[in-house]
């Protein structure tokens, strides 16, 4: 093992006759690539010249995908994981051989991952739906302000609908707030207070920008 310390695996195709007829068209052919041992600290140079460094945690020979782990600066116990396709690396250098046996791979909680995926999709859809169609910057800022407070807000054409009961129409001032069913209730008054505070803050901010 020691003779491999600081060794370099170069995946550049230096002899196309040894690699077959297809390798000459692929300057980063890695058919003869020998994967570094699990637990080794390595540095890769991609075909774009980027340097990627980390600890080898997994490697798939069929897809040529290499998984590297690197600690997050200033956060002990936290790691970043990077997937590298060694078929498109020009150079791979083993910086340090593994000193211990490979780590036991933790069992994945598939249900937890599915819940996280579902939540992320829902959040992304909310972000997409939070953008109004051809509305003014003031209206968009008002929407985000209400969303942070009440969450239950959506666009209905150019109207902002809060809690499915209060509608804010252009020009989005206090007098533009009304109940969806025409009745006056506490929700309308609450939304009016949010709108008034927003307009005061927004106006002060615009004046501050204009004075600079």
Automatic annotation (TrEMBL):
It comes from Brachionus calyciflorus. Residues 106-203 form the AD domain. SMART domains: AD (SM00995). This is AD domain-containing protein. Residues 1-31 are annotated as: Disordered. PROSITE patterns: AD. InterPro entries: AD, Lsm12-like, LSM12_ABD, LSM12_LSM. Residues 1-25 have a biased composition (Low complexity).
């Amino acid at each position: 093992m020691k003779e491999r310390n600081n060794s370099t695996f170069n995946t550049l195709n230096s002899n196309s006759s040894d690699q077959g007829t297809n390798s000459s068209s692929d300057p980063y052919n890695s058919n003869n690539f020998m994967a570094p041992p699990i637990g080794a600290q390595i540095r890769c140079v991609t075909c774009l010249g980027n340097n990627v460094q980390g600890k080898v945690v997994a490697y798939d020979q069929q897809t040529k995908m290499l998984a590297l782990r690197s600690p997050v600066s200033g956060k002990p116990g936290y790691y970043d994981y990077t997937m590298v396709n060694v078929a498109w690396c020009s150079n791979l250098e083993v910086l340090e051989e593994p000193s211990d046996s490979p780590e036991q791979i933790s069992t994945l909680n598939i249900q937890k991952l599915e819940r996280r995926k579902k939540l992320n999709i829902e959040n992304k859809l909310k972000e997409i739906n939070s953008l109004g169609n051809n509305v003014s910057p003031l209206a968009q800022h008002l929407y985000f302000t209400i969303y942070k407070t009440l969450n239950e807000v959506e666009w209905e054409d150019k109207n902002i609908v809060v809690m499915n009961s209060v509608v804010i129409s252009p020009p989005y001032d206090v007098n533009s707030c009304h109940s969806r069913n025409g009745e006056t209730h506490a929700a309308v008054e609450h939304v009016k207070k949010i709108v008034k505070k927003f307009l005061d803050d927004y106006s002060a901010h615009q004046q501050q920008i204009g004075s600079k």
